[in-house]
Every structure is written in structure tokens, then in C-alpha cells.
From TrEMBL:
It comes from Dendrobium nobile. This is F-box domain-containing protein. Residues 5-47 form the F-box domain.
Length: 418
């Protein structure tokens, strides 16, 4: 049926094919189809697409050289530095999206000393709008010049150093999206980008790494692995996620979070000053996740101090969803936390609650807290109690579970047990 279509429509149809194997197959169908392949704007070469490294390098070069105006190039299989330089040289004015998987083992196969030269090659693609690099080594600053049109930069699984990251970001002054994921080697990271809207940072290891972010347009910030966090007060943050899976988080300075809707605080050990500072600044937050195990500034792991339930919800009147882990819930369940409850108190906007209970200790107070959340939340639609991770196998755990089941039976439309 396609033989009946005009050439322009066949070109348009085949231009949506980017997978290297499909492109090669199309060129074998007929001369007419083969003549359309040079008009493909996008090429994708998956990992293990070829039998050997040498085959991959040669075939990629041949297919890339056929295309007249390449806009998007994604290469996950091995390639040499010289090949990359030739691809970029051939399409440096048209290339908009570039995604590459770097591999030091490939450098050794081609007799190259490292992938620093391959990173430098990218600088010739001066019209790039999106750049994504996997497994790259940025232990020295890349020789890029300035990417004036680059809006999205993602670096994944990289070995970094402070100066190299600083110069890399400096070469991309107009970024709106920045992601540095599963990276290691940085002790201090400072990001100052005028147009930055979304930033994701995931750094490995328990080290004391500090972060400073400054952008007046920043809306989404997701970070993991930093011990000190500072966000310039002139921002428009709507979503903030801070995690510290190893080591301790000592301090967070964000300024008033007036536009914040989603807040997630996760980790093993945070300074209580850092926790309370963020909660005070995020008084207008609508969706809150608290999954921090312990507080304490030093080696000693300490429980959360007592949190007054009435004060907490009065300070966060717009809260719609709340997810709290064992430590935060335990802090809300101390003997004095419900003393300020009276008939005038209401939780005005809370609709969903997810509570993870890790211990049957202080069972009566925990049940009283759960009952208070149901009784005083005028808009509550769903409460999930997650108790499958309870560590205590003593009979008190069975008694507590029976009480939870009784509580669910009394509030069957709202309460659910996992």
C-alpha cells in the first residue's frame, strides 16, 4: 500500500523510525525506501546491538554519514573518540539532542588514554539543546566553550571533581533542567543558573558534601547525599525532596517556602534543627512525606523530640496528604502531644494519611493519636496504617494489632491496613 503514496509522505512516515536496526532494514526494502533514509532526523543505537566493538564503530559511522540533517543521536553501544568527532563535525549545526554512553573499557580497546578527549569533542555541537552522558569521567574540566542553546543537561554515573563540575555548569548558562545522578567525588557544589527550573542531584557516599543553589525560577529540587544544603531565598520552589541515605544531614537553609506544594524529607539521621527549620519554612505545604529514622548532630542516634499534634497541624493548615514513618509518628504520640486538644480544634484540609508503625511500644498513645486524626480531620477520606514492618515479635505486638483491627472496624470506610 505504501508504494501508492507520494515520496513526501513516505519520507514523513520513515522519518519516525530511529532504531538503527529498523533504519538498516528499511534501506533494504527498495530503492525508493533507501532514498528516504537520509531524511531521518533521529538515530538510536542500543547497547549490544552489534557483535563486536569494531563492528559497532564502523556501522554507526556509515549510517550517521548517510543522514543529511541529523537532529537527535542516541548511542549506547561502543564508539571511538575519532568516530564521535566525525559525527559531530558532520552534523554540528543540526544536532539538537545528544545522548552518549561512555565506557573506559572502550577507550582501552581503541588505544585511547581516557574519555576526556571524547567529552571535549562534544563542544563542537554548538547548537545542542539537550545533552545526556552516561558513565562519563569529569575529573578535569571539559573544553566546551559555551552552549548557549543547551536547556537540558543530564550526567549519570559519573566520576567528578569540584572544579570540573563548576566549569561544566558554567559552560551551560541557560539550563532549565539539570540532573547529576549517581555521581561521586564532589565535596562542594555551587549552582548559579538564571533560568534553572528543575534540578535533580544524587551523590553517592557518606561524605560531608555541601550544596548551594541559586535560581529565581527554580520550581523543582530533588537532592540526595548532601550534609549541608542552602537554597537562595529568591526562588519559586513548588516541590522539594531532600534525602540523606548515609551519614548525617546537619543543616538546611531554604528561606520561606511560600509556593511549596510537595515536601519530602528522607534519610537515616538528620539534625533536629534541620528538620524543624524546613518544617517551619514550609508552613503552606500541601503534601508532606516524613521518612527520617533518627535525629542527632553527632554519632549518637537520637529519637525525635516530642511534637505537639495541635501545634503541628495549626502550623500547617493547608496540608492535604501526610505520610509519616515510625520516628515522626512516635514523636506525635508522646504523652503530652494531645493535651491541647479541645472541641474547637480542627484539621481543615487533611484528606489522606499514611502511617508506618514500627513498634508496639506506647500502644495506647498511638491509638489515641490515630483516633484524633480521624476525629478532627473534617475532610479525611483515607488513612492507611502500614504495620507489616513491625520488628517486635512479643505478644504485645499481637495485642496492638488487635486494637488496630478494632479501630479499622469502627472506621471501615476510611481506615485501611497494609
Amino acid at each position: 500500500m505504501m508504494d501508492m503514496l507520494p515520496d513526501a509522505i513516505i519520507q514523513q512516515i520513515l522519518s519516525h523510525i530511529s532504531h538503527a536496526r529498523d533504519v538498516a532494514s528499511c534501506s533494504c526494502v527498495s530503492k525508493r525506501w533507501k532514498d528516504c533514509i537520509p531524511y531521518s532526523p533521529s538515530l538510536y543505537f542500543p547497547r549490544n546491538a552489534f557483535h563486536s566493538v569494531a563492528d559497532a564503530d564502523a556501522i554507526i559511522c556509515r549510517i550517521v554519514s548517510i543522514v543529511l540533517r541529523l537532529e537527535e543521536l542516541v548511542v549506547y553501544c561502543p564508539f571511538s573518540t575519532s568516530s564521535l568527532a566525525s559525527w559531530i563535525s558532520l552534523h554540528n549545526s543540526s544536532l539538537r539532542i545528544l545522548e552518549l554512553r561512555m565506557d573506559n573499557a572502550v577507550d582501552k580497546f581503541f588505544g585511547s588514554e581516557g574519555n576526556g578527549d571524547r567529552v571535549d569533542c562534544i563542544g563542537a555541537a554548538h547548537n545542542l539543546e539537550a545533552l545526556k552522558l552516561w558513565g562519563v569521567s569529569l575529573t578535569r574540566s571539559p573544553n566546551w566553550g559555551v552552549f548557549k542553546r543547551l536547556r537540558t543537561l543530564e550526567i549519570i554515573g559519573a566520576a567528578l571533581c569540584d572544579d570540573a563540575v563548576k566549569d561544566t555548569i558554567k559552560a551551560c548558562p541557560n539550563l532549565t533542567d539539570l540532573a547529576l545522578l549517581s555521581c561521586d567525588g564532589v565535596t562542594t557544589l555551587s549552582i548559579e543558573l538564571e533560568w534553572l527550573e528543575r534540578c535533580r542531584l544524587d551523590f553517592l557516599g557518606p561524605g560531608n558534601c555541601s550544596l548551594s543553589v541559586s535560581s529565581m525560577r527554580l520550581q523543582v529540587l530533588e537532592i540526595q547525599g548532601f550534609s549541608w544544603v542552602r537554597v537562595n531565598k529568591n526562588h519559586k520552589l513548588r516541590s522539594l525532596c531532600i534525602s540523606k541515605n548515609t551519614g548525617r544531614l546537619y543543616g538546611v537553609d531554604t528561606g520561606k517556602l511560600v509556593d511549596l506544594e510537595h515536601l519530602s524529607l528522607r534519610g537515616i539521621q538528620w539534625s533536629w534543627n534541620a528538620i524543624s527549620s524546613v518544617l517551619q519554612c514550609a508552613s503552606d505545604v500541601k503534601h508532606l512525606v516524613m521518612k527520617i529514622e533518627f535525629c542527632g548532630d553527632f554519632e549518637t542516634l537520637q529519637p525525635f523530640p516530642e511534637i505537639d499534634l495541635v501545634e503541628f497541624f495549626n502550623n500547617h493548615p493547608r496540608l492535604k496528604t501526610l505520610e509519616i514513618h515510625g520516628a515522626m509518628f512516635a514523636a506525635l504520640c508522646q504523652k503530652n502531644s494531645l493535651k491541647k486538644l479541645d472541641s474547637n480544634f480542627v484539621i481543615p484540609n487533611l484528606e489522606e494519611v499514611l502511617v508506618t508503625v514500627r513498634s508496639p511500644l506506647n500502644a495506647e498513645q498511638k491509638l489515641n493519636t490515630l483516633e484524633s486524626l480521624v476525629d478532627f480531620s473534617v475532610k479525611l477520606r483515607k488513612m492507611v496504617i502500614r504495620i507489616s514492618q513491625m520488628k517486635n515479635c512479643h505478644e504485645t505486638a499481637d495485642d496492638f494489632f488487635e486494637e488496630i483491627c478494632r479501630f479499622k472496624h469502627l472506621n471501615n470506610d476510611i481506615v485501611h491496613i497494609e
